Recover the amino acids of this structure.
């Protein structure tokens, strides 16, 4: 989202995280802007039974955890590296300085946050009123639009990750994929999902 050159010129540090290493915890005070250089990061909540609900997965170039920097509230979710990852870490004060002095970056940043709000509203609607197959297709189509384009798109998420992102059980996701395949909505080739 923000160019590496701009981040580094504003004193961002590149931090390496091992797979499953915590970056921040729900309830922590937000002090830094984070942007994935390489790898992936998941933001999630745990319920009282330890079940994970994934708020989002962020890949190369994606930022995460920004709203608390602007709203002065604690992190509403935890973040951890989903695989070995390198993440830019920039202080809140330097982020604000960067945005003040780079209007085009500020506009791009605002557009990204707006798109995330739209995604959250879409997912909340899906989870509250639609059956599993519809929820899954909405998620898959969102990922295809964001990362895949117009060709046959491979979903690089596990069935567990899809369950975590849609609030479903893994067994439900597996049954829904079989139903979607029989309806011609997706293809399953060597255990990989395509749309």
């Amino acid at each position: 989202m923000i160019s590496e050159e701009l981040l580094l010129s504003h004193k961002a540090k590149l931090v390496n995280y091992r797979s499953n290493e915590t970056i921040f915890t729900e309830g922590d005070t937000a002090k830094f802007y984070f942007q994935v250089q390489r790898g992936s990061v998941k933001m999630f909540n745990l319920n009282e039974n330890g079940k994970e609900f994934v708020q989002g997965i962020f890949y190369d170039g994606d930022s995460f955890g920004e709203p608390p920097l602007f709203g002065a509230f604690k992190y509403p979710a935890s973040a951890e590296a989903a695989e070995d990852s390198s993440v830019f870490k920039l202080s809140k004060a330097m982020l604000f300085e960067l945005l003040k002095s780079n209007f085009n970056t500020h506009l791009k940043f605002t557009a990204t946050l707006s798109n995330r709000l739209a995604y959250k509203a879409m997912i909340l609607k899906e989870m509250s009123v639609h059956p599993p197959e519809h929820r899954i297709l909405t998620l898959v189509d969102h990922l295809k639009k964001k990362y895949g384009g117009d060709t046959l798109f491979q979903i690089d998420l596990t069935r567990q990750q899809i369950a975590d992102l849609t609030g479903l059980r893994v067994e439900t996701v597996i049954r829904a994929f079989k139903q979607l395949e029989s309806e011609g909505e997706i293809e399953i080739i060597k255990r990989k999902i395509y749309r």
User: Anything to note?
Assistant: Residues 103-129 form the longest helix (27 residues). The radius of gyration is 18 Å. The chain has seven helices and eleven strands. The chain has a mean pLDDT of 92.
